[in-house]
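Exercise 3.2. Students should predict the tertiary structure of the chain below and write it as structure tokens, then compare their answer with the key that follows.

Predict this chain's 3D structure.
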Amino acid sequence: MFAATAKDLWESRDLLTTDAVALLLTGSAIAFIVAAIAVKAFISFLTRYGFKHFGYYRILLGILFLAYALLTGMKIAL
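Answer key:
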């Protein structure tokens, strides 16, 4: 991901202005902070409740997705 981003930034270096770099850095910092908070909250949830509820959530989500796929005629590649 880092190499792909660096390549893309290098190829579009002519379009980068001071404002664009400031926006890019601000967005990256905010994304990092939000990701850290999300990971901390998820670890806290798992510490408190374990994987059981997470497993139920994933199973329910899978059933809902399969029901949606069957009802809409979506093709599922297995």
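Discussion points: Helices lie at 2-11, 18-49, 52-72. Residues 26 and 53 are 35 Å apart (CA to CA).
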